[in-house]
Specification:
CATH class: Alpha Beta
Number of strands: 14
Largest sheet: 10 strands, mixed
CATH superfamily: Spore Coat Polysaccharide Biosynthesis Protein SpsA, Chain A
Radius of gyration: 17 Å
CATH architecture: Alpha-Beta Complex
Distance between the termini: 29 Å
Helix content: 10-25%
Structural class: alpha/beta
Number of domains: 1
Length: 239
Amino acid sequence: MKAMILAAGLGTRLRPLTNDLPKALVPFKGVPLVERIIRNLAYAGIDHIIVNVHHHAERVIDFIRHLDVPGTSLYISDEREMLMDTGGALLKAREFFTGEEDFLVHNVDVITNLDISALILAHRGGDSMATIAVKKRPTSRSLLFDNEGYLSGWRQNETGEVRIVRKKAGALEDYGNSCVQVISREFFSHYPDTRVLNLTEMYLDLAVKYLIQPFIHNEDYWYDLGRYENYLKADKEVF
């Protein structure tokens, strides 16, 4: 199986740690974030991983080239000319996924102990365009799933704005997006051109006609290390 690590962000919310380092190379418990995720994915059996780069791209490229993870091949998607956002990054790297039935996507600034293998099995056991890891947690933006377990909308919790995209079955349940997901290759057929797009917006567009299901992992820890205050919190709580 193949995977993509989204690592091209500027890391502005993680300053001062990213004053001189790309976010991907910020160490957590002594190990650069991108390396931690690569090794976790390799442990789950993923043998081809592509990492997109932009901020301090040369440093990330050099690190990836010298990183030895037995049984796993590493690749680079270069976004130095233009940041493609989370969805556009996948479109730019689409050729990497040729021949794959599905693939995994993981944000570089997410630290969690969710079971990657179980997430993959859950996706393959269903009939969804994508399976998104989600967790009950405080968040500024929630994904809304209906009683049948399918993505039906989105809510901005700070403003109260709600967007419903499909006829829902019963009440809606809100979850925070854990930014780890498995996506079927059919996803690319709906976006033939490569352009800057947000992945959540793409999910909401697809959910009008296609099934997007949750993988609920409420018992696992999860931290967004893209924010400095979250980094400090995780550093105290994760062992």
